[in-house]
Write a structure and sequence with these properties.
Order of helices and strands: EHEHEEHHHEEHHEEH
Number of strands: 8
Shape: elongated
Radius of gyration: 40 Å
Helix content: 55-70%
Strand content: 5-15%
Distance between the termini: 117 Å
Oligomer: single chain
Structural class: alpha+beta
Largest sheet: 4 strands, mixed
């Protein structure tokens, strides 16, 4: 299937040029094969585009402006409908193409067909035994580090508290050893130092 994008290479409208660039740039980013068909230089392309845009999609003057997008002979839409599909992550559906595996659009299409998925398991359409097996397998696969983290934090906090208590005890012992005995209101060390001065 070939996507045909009808363009005007010599359009005087900057809005049309920008829209054409947006469409082509996005198709290139998605690696979608397309054929740009110029309606400014090729009268056959212009006539084919005008004849194949559905009547309900034509503007009031009856002349559709580029870019107009087709999948082979099937009309996909104009810039506005392309932009809406882009915003809705539905460009492949808009173009009538299957989304590539792993794309967001492929996942959404899968969900529409098969129902919601939780942890790689289809929620709708499974029996209770399957759900239990999946839950058990999931519980076995829980990362041990997630369970060990709170334990490690508690151990670290206990160690810090133990270390603090040891430091307080050592400080108390040092104070007791350094504290001079007091007799008669004077410390022994004071008397000794005075006695040493007298003599």
């Amino acid at each position: 299937m070939v996507i045909k994008v009808f363009l005007a290479s010599s359009s005087g409208s900057t809005a049309i040029k920008k829209k054409q660039q947006d469409v082509l740039g996005f198709l290139e980013a998605l690696k979608v094969d397309y054929a740009p068909l110029d309606i400014a230089c090729n009268e056959d392309n212009r006539m084919w585009m005008r004849e194949n845009v559905p009547v309900e999609k034509k503007p009031t003057n009856g002349i559709p402006l580029p870019p107009q997008i087709f999948n082979e002979e099937s009309y996909c839409g104009d810039y506005e409908t392309f932009f809406d599909a882009k915003e809705d992550n539905a460009v492949y559906a808009f173009l009538g193409l299957p989304p590539p595996p792993g794309s967001k659009e492929a996942k959404e299409a899968y969900l529409l067909e098969n129902g919601p998925v939780e942890n790689g398991t289809i929620v709708n359409g499974t029996d209770d035994a399957e759900d239990e097996e999946n839950l058990e397998a999931e519980e076995e696969n829980i990362d041990d580090d997630t369970l060990k983290a709170p334990v490690k934090e508690e151990e670290a906090q206990e160690e810090a508290e133990d270390e603090e208590a040891k430091e307080e005890e050592e400080l108390r012992q040092l104070e007791e050893e350094e504290a001079p005995e007091v007799r008669g209101g004077r410390r022994r060390s004071d008397r000794g130092s005075r006695a040493g001065r007298r003599g």
